[in-house]
Write a structure and sequence with these properties.
mainly alpha
Length: about 400
């Protein structure tokens, strides 16, 4: 490539960094809101992709495990500036919330916050936000009796079955049911302009599965806390469908029983994560900081996002064929319904059981839910209101 081409690629990378950093500083509201921000900035204003290609990319990332909005951003970066563009797009979108949550962790470390009123208020904020996510996702992903049934069954199994791989087995079963009940008709649009070879894609997918299998096997003999931390967050990032709030039960299962983070600190950080822009998966940065300082924060962040990279890079070259399959469409319908059920289970345990302890707690949760769902106030306002409400209730 000549000098002009190098300069052109460099300019494209700087452009991707600037736009993604802007989005990382301003994109409040969770994964669904992020997709709206992306559409407005990348598609409507800059026209980096056509409408149909963007819709197909979103569909792919919703099908893959991991943080869907981050994966969409990575995909757009790849389309605009190649593999490095995908990394730059992720870095710009993610870095602001990583820094904010790391600072929050530093403030909390060494403090006795278990009985603080504002901490209890943040727990109640988490109840309201996840309740809103359950309702919003349920309206979209469980529109008929069959999918409502799948969602409720998934919630029942998630609450009663706490094995490490329970969630992925529940989703696999739901995908099988959806395969038979909801085969759709293929509706193929123009191919996505992806310049990743199938050889590179296969290597990424092979590395994804290799790490998923080998890391737990090597963990007992590793003898290092960093290895165990990376394994826990890599698995969490690999096995969660739906992204965002759905990762909550997986992370709680990994870090609280191990003694890395107390339940109080876990829920406080989850509440604080609602107040910052960018992907909710950066909650892992906070948890890693609480568990092992700056080193732990870096390990946790890389661990939870690495599967997103490997899966997007591995799937993009094959998606033009897969997305036209009615079998894939049917399985995805069942999986999405089960995601709603798993999120409903997480709303009860650990959120409701830890935060709603008396009538006043329920009253505050109801007020915050109305502010979020009906008044459409931004999440950072809900966080501030929840923290203030927790302090006020402590004084009553």
């Amino acid at each position: 490539m000549g000098t002009g081409g190098t300069k052109g690629r460099g300019a494209a990378l700087l452009e991707v960094l600037g736009v993604s950093l802007k989005l990382g500083l301003t994109s409040f509201g969770g994964p669904v809101a992020h997709l709206g921000y992306f559409h407005n900035e990348y598609i409507r204003r800059r026209k980096w992709m056509d409408e149909r290609s963007y819709a197909d990319l979103v569909a792919l990332c919703q099908f893959l495990p991991g943080p869907a909005s981050s994966q969409v951003g990575i995909g757009i970066g790849v389309v605009r500036a190649g593999l490095l563009g995908g990394f730059i797009a992720w870095l710009g979108f993610t870095l602001p919330s990583v820094i904010a949550l790391a600072v929050f962790a530093l403030v909390l470390q060494g403090l006795d916050i278990a009985g603080a009123g504002w901490i209890h208020g943040l727990k109640i904020v988490a109840v309201a936000i996840v309740a809103q996510a359950v309702l919003g996702m349920g309206q979209k992903l469980t529109p008929d009796r069959g999918r409502v049934t799948i969602a409720v069954a998934a919630a029942v199994f998630a609450l009663s079955w706490h094995a490490a791989y329970a969630q992925v087995l529940i989703l696999a079963a739901a995908g099988g049911i959806g395969l038979f009940l909801y085969r759709g008709q293929p509706d193929r649009g123009p191919d996505l302009p992806i310049r990743i070879s199938r050889t590179v894609a296969v290597c990424c997918l092979a590395l994804f599965f290799l790490l998923l299998i080998v890391l737990p096997l090597l963990r007992p003999s590793s003898g290092t806390g960093g290895f165990a931390l990376f394994d826990s967050f890599y698995r969490s990032g690999s096995l969660v469908f739906g992204g965002g709030h759905v990762v909550l039960p997986l992370l709680e299962h990994e870090v609280v029983p191990a003694g890395w983070v107390s339940r109080e600190d876990f829920l406080a950080g989850y509440g604080a994560a609602q107040a910052v822009p960018g992907p909710l998966f950066t909650f892992a940065s906070y948890l890693g900081m609480m568990a092992a300082g700056v080193k732990g924060g870096i390990i946790a962040t890389l661990g939870i996002f690495l599967p997103a990279f490997l899966l997007v890079m591995g799937a993009l070259p094959f998606w033009n064929v897969l997305r036209s399959s009615p079998n894939v469409q049917g399985a995805l319908a069942g999986i999405n319904a089960a995601v709603v059920g798993i999120l409903l289970a997480a709303l009860y345990d650990p959120l409701w059981t830890s935060a709603i302890l008396r009538p006043l707690d329920f009253a505050l949760a109801a007020i915050l839910f109305v502010m979020l769902f009906f008044w459409k106030l931004p999440p950072w306002v809900i966080v501030l209101a929840g923290a203030a409400g927790g302090v006020l209730m402590q004084l009553i």
